[in-house]
């Protein structure tokens, strides 16, 4: 089968990234799969050895991002789509505010995407085409109790995507922001609070693939949750704070 193109996915060693790699492989893509955990990357590659290729990477390392992009281009050819999906998130206790831990969410989630874009964009601009997507979250729509650092990192990614879309649309570069609600992955397996409208990771991967194929700016799902949070986003503080306090107590 002729390749549909080359897609680079960070955070591909687990959860949404791994499912997206399998989904894209099933649709004829060559996948450059990045993550730090070599064993999990190798296990993913074994699922589709002709299509999925491991490129070990810590996204917080700027130079390593540049090195990996050069290796992907050399081994697989120009990168058509880059999905910056690597992320960390866990419950946050504001009364035990640990600055290093709070910074870490920003360094990996937002900083990792920034490093990846910096590495891949020059070649895309040179070719006059390319697609960049970032996995943010519905948690980036508003500050949430128990998740301020995570929300802040995802809000930064959404704002980055909006601005880049406007700046790059005349250059042949499409930008997307992916804002999932709850998806069953090792990240959410740790959560001990209710996660309404949770979906399976394969379902999430299918929705992301379709959104990327349609070059949609916003890929958001499940809509029952994301549109509800979007409604909350539009409320003035006088209404938002009491409503979100009540929801958090449920
Ligand atoms: N699950 C959800 O409900 C949900 C909802 C909204 C948004 N998201 C977002 O979706 C993305 C994927 O999450 P997930 O649920 O699939 O979580 P996951 O299963 O925990 O996967 C996280 C991925 O990020 C990678 N990663 C973490 N730190 C990294 C680093 N410094 N360098 C390179 N890779 C790193 C991990 O790989 P290594 O450990 O191998 O490095 C792993 O592949 C995240 O950005 C998350 O915030 C998830």
From TrEMBL:
Single Gene Ontology MF annotation: isomerase activity
InterPro entries: NAD(P)-bd_dom_sf, SDR_fam
Keywords, alphabetical: Oxidoreductase
EC number: 1.1.1.267
Enzyme class: oxidoreductase
SUPFAM superfamilies, per database record: NAD(P)-binding Rossmann-fold domains (SSF51735)
Keyword Plastid included in the entry's annotation: no
Annotated GO CC locations: membrane
Gene3D superfamilies for the chain: NAD(P)-binding Rossmann-like Domain (3.40.50.720)
UniProt keyword Oxidoreductase present: yes
Pfam families: adh_short (PF00106)
PANTHER family listed in its UniProt record: DEHYDROGENASE/REDUCTASE SDR FAMILY MEMBER 7B, DEHYDROGENASE_REDUCTASE SDR FAMILY MEMBER 7B
Family to which the UniProt record says this protein belongs: Belongs to the short-chain dehydrogenases/reductases (SDR) family.
Name this protein carries in UniProt: 1-deoxy-D-xylulose-5-phosphate reductoisomerase protein
